[in-house]
Amino acid sequence: MKALVKREAAPGLWLEEVPKPEIGINDVLIKVKRTAICGTDMHIYNWDSWSQKTIPVPMIIGHEFVGEIVAVGTNVIDFNPGQIVSGEGHVVCGRCRNCMAGRRHLCAHTSGIGVNRPGAFAEYLALPMSNVWEHQSGIDLDVAALFDPFGNAVHTALQFDLLGEDVLITGAGPIGAMAAAVCRHAGARHVVITDINPRRLKLAKVLGATCTVDVSKESIAATQKKLGMAEGFDVGLEMSGNPSAFNALLENMCHGGKVALLGIPGSDIAIDWNIVIFNMLTLKGIYGREMYETWYKMSVMIESGLDISPIITHRFHYTEFEQGFAAMNAGEASKVILNWD
Ligand code: NAD
Ligand code: ZN
């Protein structure tokens, strides 16, 4: 089969002929139909310092996908060939305290597809049945390919009650913009999103942000005044990993405000802890998606009319993958879909 492989410890990716994966008794074999490019794939493509210490070569990369089941292991009774599925890319140990208690997203021994084990940028992917999520029939395949990053947005956005609340999202990357869509869908009043990239802010508005703030030109405090908000934001979602964005978010929360942190900082961030303490803020770190409550919420929100498709800015055949990675590197793209049909 064909796959996009990190063949050498150097920048780039190689389209190669590799053996089709064999499935174990508990696995399903998926014929990949669409994949999406993630920031993680860009790190691996560009071979930054994180990738150099994390990714063993050779490695088939990629973890955002949708496909069709073509074979199942002898133990698998809940899945059948023909089903359209995505998969949770974090394969958990199943034996640690959290796994045993059903809190699989808190497993301390996860292995990631396309990072630690063969990934989805390939014609076929073998996955344990416990990692498979079946889509509702008729789902748009491009949207289905986004369930991994969409899940990051949903997991973060739904941490705290949103109905009637005012939400501040820092960072209008693909995940921040999808989180804006989720917050609106879930009944928030103001959904204010910040960035320094006008193109990304514009797209976030299309997805559902009620107000955008280019923090290189205006302040969040001035925006609050404009909106007639007297007491600060009820819920904050940090989705940039940027130190000044995180600090600005803390400064603009109401007393008792709740903050979920998804953005990954490049290095240590200093914050004013007095704000956290005296304003009695709640800070919660978020990683991945909940298995499988997040996946359930994603499916039913799509079913009830949530449209995240505008986040897709580019579509290519997998043989044109270099164009997709170039669009991401140029900062032109939000989500890029690769078609494997
Ligand atoms: P992204 O890098 O595409 O988006 C981040 C956005 O933040 C960019 O649009 C950037 O312009 C913006 N930004 C930079 N400085 C800013 C500032 N001062 N104020 C406001 N915005 C600013 O990333 P993404 O794919 O949308 O992911 C969002 C974040 O979540 C990233 O940090 C990513 O590494 C992280 N992430 C975390 C998990 C997890 O499980 N915790 C999973 C996926 C992604
Ligand atoms: Zn575990």
From TrEMBL:
<dbReference type="Pfam" id="PF08240">
    <property type="entry name" value="ADH_N"/>
</dbReference>
<feature type="binding site">
    <location>
        <position position="38"/>
    </location>
    <ligand>
        <name>Zn(2+) 1</name>
    </ligand>
</feature>
<feature type="site" description="Important for catalytic activity for the proton relay mechanism but does not participate directly in the coordination of zinc atom">
    <location>
        <position position="148"/>
    </location>
</feature>
<dbReference type="InterPro" id="IPR004627">
    <property type="entry name" value="L-Threonine_3-DHase"/>
</dbReference>
<dbReference type="InterPro" id="IPR050129">
    <property type="entry name" value="Zn_alcohol_dh"/>
</dbReference>
<keyword id="KW-0520">NAD</keyword>
<feature type="active site" description="Charge relay system">
    <location>
        <position position="43"/>
    </location>
</feature>
<feature type="binding site">
    <location>
        <begin position="262"/>
        <end position="264"/>
    </location>
    <ligand>
        <name>NAD(+)</name>
    </ligand>
</feature>
<comment type="function">
    <text>Catalyzes the NAD(+)-dependent oxidation of L-threonine to 2-amino-3-ketobutyrate.</text>
</comment>
<dbReference type="GO" id="GO:0019518">
    <property type="term" value="P:L-threonine catabolic process to glycine"/>
</dbReference>
<keyword id="KW-0963">Cytoplasm</keyword>
<dbReference type="GO" id="GO:0005737">
    <property type="term" value="C:cytoplasm"/>
</dbReference>
<feature type="binding site">
    <location>
        <begin position="286"/>
        <end position="287"/>
    </location>
    <ligand>
        <name>NAD(+)</name>
    </ligand>
</feature>
<feature type="domain" description="Alcohol dehydrogenase-like N-terminal">
    <location>
        <begin position="26"/>
        <end position="134"/>
    </location>
</feature>
<feature type="binding site">
    <location>
        <position position="96"/>
    </location>
    <ligand>
        <name>Zn(2+) 2</name>
    </ligand>
</feature>
<dbReference type="InterPro" id="IPR036291">
    <property type="entry name" value="NAD(P)-bd_dom_sf"/>
</dbReference>
<dbReference type="GO" id="GO:0008270">
    <property type="term" value="F:zinc ion binding"/>
</dbReference>
<feature type="binding site">
    <location>
        <position position="107"/>
    </location>
    <ligand>
        <name>Zn(2+) 2</name>
    </ligand>
</feature>
<feature type="domain" description="Alcohol dehydrogenase-like C-terminal">
    <location>
        <begin position="174"/>
        <end position="301"/>
    </location>
</feature>
<keyword id="KW-0479">Metal-binding</keyword>
<feature type="binding site">
    <location>
        <position position="195"/>
    </location>
    <ligand>
        <name>NAD(+)</name>
    </ligand>
</feature>
<feature type="active site" description="Charge relay system">
    <location>
        <position position="40"/>
    </location>
</feature>
<dbReference type="InterPro" id="IPR002328">
    <property type="entry name" value="ADH_Zn_CS"/>
</dbReference>
<feature type="binding site">
    <location>
        <position position="64"/>
    </location>
    <ligand>
        <name>Zn(2+) 1</name>
    </ligand>
</feature>
<comment type="similarity">
    <text>Belongs to the zinc-containing alcohol dehydrogenase family.</text>
</comment>
<protein>
    <recommendedName>
        <fullName>L-threonine 3-dehydrogenase</fullName>
        <ecNumber>1.1.1.103</ecNumber>
    </recommendedName>
</protein>
<keyword id="KW-0560">Oxidoreductase</keyword>
<dbReference type="Pfam" id="PF00107">
    <property type="entry name" value="ADH_zinc_N"/>
</dbReference>
<comment type="pathway">
    <text>Amino-acid degradation; L-threonine degradation via oxydo-reductase pathway; glycine from L-threonine: step 1/2.</text>
</comment>
<feature type="binding site">
    <location>
        <position position="93"/>
    </location>
    <ligand>
        <name>Zn(2+) 2</name>
    </ligand>
</feature>
<dbReference type="GO" id="GO:0008743">
    <property type="term" value="F:L-threonine 3-dehydrogenase activity"/>
</dbReference>
<comment type="subunit">
    <text>Homotetramer.</text>
</comment>
<feature type="binding site">
    <location>
        <position position="175"/>
    </location>
    <ligand>
        <name>NAD(+)</name>
    </ligand>
</feature>
<dbReference type="InterPro" id="IPR011032">
    <property type="entry name" value="GroES-like_sf"/>
</dbReference>
<feature type="binding site">
    <location>
        <position position="99"/>
    </location>
    <ligand>
        <name>Zn(2+) 2</name>
    </ligand>
</feature>
<feature type="binding site">
    <location>
        <position position="200"/>
    </location>
    <ligand>
        <name>NAD(+)</name>
    </ligand>
</feature>
<feature type="binding site">
    <location>
        <position position="63"/>
    </location>
    <ligand>
        <name>Zn(2+) 1</name>
    </ligand>
</feature>
<keyword id="KW-0862">Zinc</keyword>
<dbReference type="InterPro" id="IPR013154">
    <property type="entry name" value="ADH-like_N"/>
</dbReference>
<dbReference type="InterPro" id="IPR013149">
    <property type="entry name" value="ADH-like_C"/>
</dbReference>
